Amino acid sequence: MNRPRKVKITDTIYRDAHQSRMATRMSTEDMLPVAKDLESVGYWALEMWGGATFDSCLRFLKECPWLRVRRLREDIRDTGFMMLLRGQNILGYKHYPDDVLEAFVRATVDNGVNIIRIFDALNDVRNMEMAIRATRAAGGHVQAAVVYTISPVHDIDHYVEMAVHLEKLGANSICIKDMAGILTPYRGYQLVEEMKKAVGIPIDIHSHMTTGMAAMAYLKTIEAGADIVDTCLSAFANGTAQPATESMVAVLQDTPYDTGLDLEKLANINRHFKKVREQYGDFFTPADVDVQCLVYQVPGGMLSNLRAQMNAQGMLDKWDEVLNEVPRVREELGYPPLVTPMSQIVGTQAVFNVATGERYSVKSKEIRDYVRGLYGRPPGEISDEVRKMIIGDEDVLTTRPAEILEPGMEKARDAIKDYIRKPEDVLSYALFPEQALEYFRHREIHGE
């Protein structure tokens, strides 16, 4: 610890924190009162868009997600604005055509987001290439993410090779994205140590406190050379969200990694979010530690979705059977990381298998498309027996999935020509047709 290296902080209070703990329900009006204060903190970035925020703005809050960015940018001029982009999936659960992706990235940067964290649910770099090129062409910072999971085909060499590939494609920084909070401190140290030897760009660590390990993993990865860590203000911290910003700042004070952030200033801002939390009590989830992630490789968000799905079907008595079925399905499907949308695909199939008592007798469209190669290349081999049960003798796509998609922007523009009030409306509709139309109709009556 004798080499001075100030650690940078990305605070997720405007995106992942309330997505993880509060069903992504925080409104823009509840974000604005402390925007100027957040600007003065000195964060490297605020993760404030992407993920589920776009859909939630349209579906639940009846807000324009584009307006959120612009309004926050009026008060936060210098701090980086980061969004989470699901590669070719953009913000949805399927692949979108290249013209939609390119137009979306260009509009995102034009509206004020300057750091785009790009990942693919399968770590298939082909599904990240267009987003990386589009972000660089728009003048944005590419933070390319390596999705961390544990399986026989996911080892340190795999992650390091992927990081090297992403740097060559034009990444400005690398994110190790641990969506389930399963990165152990010493494994994290080893991973970052090896990755720092192989790439010459900053490394950002993103994890969740679901298993209670993330803060410890942050400390060890910082010692190994990590440059940035993702935290969130303590009002929304821990549980399925990130470690608390204030705690991490205090831990690093008076060390070579001192963030330089002011704890008193953070505490003052956090008071606002404590009040906000009280307003959304019906949505707020407790900050529990759930070690089932370590046993079943099931992220916290997936656990809650599975439980809700099973409760609706009167199947909670079969909870343990489904938890045991999830890793079995995952293995048979080539060990996909359990991140959106793969967590939903694997989880739903596990429920079907247990509910019917006959494995793969019921299959979703999504799992058929996955096995057909329409989501990308699986990390490992899919069992031949399972492939036949799901798609029979159908051919499997081996090219980049988006190459078979027809352009989508003109179709979207024609479909909503009577509702277009600004160019971004076309993109909103292209991504979420039903939710966007409902919002446009609401806007006609109530305004923006």
Strand fraction = 5-15%
Overall form: globular
- Kindly report the spatial arrangement of strands forming the biggest sheet: 1-2-3-4-5-6-7-8
* SS element count, helices: 21
Unreliable stretches covering 5 or more consecutive residues? none
Give structural notes.
- The mean pLDDT is 95.
- Helix 6 (98-111) packs parallel to helix 7 (126-138), helix 9 packs parallel to helix 10 and helix 20 (424-431) packs across helix 21 (433-446).
- The protein has helices at 16-22, 28-31, 35-39, 53-61, 65-75, 98-111, 126-138, 156-169, 185-198, 214-224, 245-252, 263-279, 292-296, 300-312, 319-332, 342-356, 365-371, 384-391, 409-415, 424-431, 433-446, and strands at 8-11, 45-50, 80-85, 115-118, 141-147, 173-177, 203-206, 228-231.
- With 448 residues, the chain is of the alpha/beta class.
- It is globular.
- The N and C termini lie far apart (52 Å).
- An 8-stranded parallel barrel has the order 1-2-3-4-5-6-7-8, surrounded by 5 helices.
Fold topology:
Blueprint: E1 8-11, H1 16-22, H2 28-31, H3 35-39, E2 45-50, H4 53-61, H5 65-75, E3 80-85, H6 98-111, E4 115-118, H7 126-138, E5 141-147, H8 156-169, E6 173-177, H9 185-198, E7 203-206, H10 214-224, E8 228-231, H11 245-252, H12 263-279, H13 292-296, H14 300-312, H15 319-332, H16 342-356, H17 365-371, H18 384-391, H19 409-415, H20 424-431, H21 433-446
Parallel strand pairs: 1-2, 1-8, 2-3, 3-4, 4-5, 5-6, 6-7, 7-8
